Amino acid sequence: MLRHSVAADVMEQAGLLSAWEQTYTQMSPGRFEGTIVEVDVGGMKLARERMNVSVHHVATPMDGWVGFTFPVDRDKLRYLDWRHRMPSKSVVMTHDKIYHGLTTQDSDVVIYSVPIELLRSHLHDLKVDAGPLLQHQIVLSSDFIEYGLWVIDTAKDGLDTQSAAAAQSTILDYFATAVCNADALLAGASSWRADRQTAVTKACASAYASGLGDASLSTMCEASGVSLRVLQQAFKEVMGMPPIKWLRMARLNAVRQALRDRTCSSVTQVAMDYSFYHLGRFSAEYKKLFHEAPNWTMARRAITG
């Protein structure tokens, strides 16, 4: 479900965002104009907030929720609390703390609001210790921010149940990966008993066995018998990339193989079979990897076949 709201008053704007308690103070002159586009993704809230004037935020997530905020343009948001010492990081924002920020004019911010039990459950499934979750400082890639913007834009045309579930899983996997990366070292030698190559081999085999379109970090961790933190370290050492990237690359290769099959008649259907629901993004990634568009692959089979 997507909700689009427009406000002509800064106090009205402060009340538009679900799962947050906020106070806004307008800090620069001008007739206020603000918008919120918010989409429900399997119980979590994903929003994009834009305001034309400088605003001082005083905010805290509601009880039972955690939040993450990411400016589309980093220069448009300045933290006024202890977060200013971590310009390249975000934090897991919780109900028991108050957060201060100052936007510049024409700000554009993406806000993730996640039920804390949903996040804890996902981390538990991936064997990630959720105990210190609330103290984590995390770094999320620009790809993740772009993915959030894509989900919001796609939701304008409606997200079906399958797409929403895939988006929720991807978002939670990004968060879990960031939580793992927040720790410079593995939890300890005792957590690293499994052989690196064996863990990676089992994880990859499980992804293929369950079907790449349905595979997830959870199934890979379960098959390898190690936590996500350990699996990430193993993949980085053995494959040179984290498991979430390997899975995406494997899916792209599977799509290419399917497109070269003479029985295949639809790029769209094949892409969706492997959990690529944004065709523009899929096509760009496919072309970057294989130096040809998906439809070119289909066209060439007629020549080479």
From TrEMBL:
<dbReference type="GO" id="GO:0043565">
    <property type="term" value="F:sequence-specific DNA binding"/>
</dbReference>
<keyword id="KW-0238">DNA-binding</keyword>
<dbReference type="InterPro" id="IPR050204">
    <property type="entry name" value="AraC_XylS_family_regulators"/>
</dbReference>
<keyword id="KW-0805">Transcription regulation</keyword>
<feature type="domain" description="HTH araC/xylS-type">
    <location>
        <begin position="216"/>
        <end position="300"/>
    </location>
</feature>
<protein>
    <submittedName>
        <fullName>Helix-turn-helix domain-containing protein</fullName>
    </submittedName>
</protein>
<dbReference type="InterPro" id="IPR018060">
    <property type="entry name" value="HTH_AraC"/>
</dbReference>
<keyword id="KW-0804">Transcription</keyword>
<dbReference type="GO" id="GO:0003700">
    <property type="term" value="F:DNA-binding transcription factor activity"/>
</dbReference>
<dbReference type="Pfam" id="PF12833">
    <property type="entry name" value="HTH_18"/>
</dbReference>
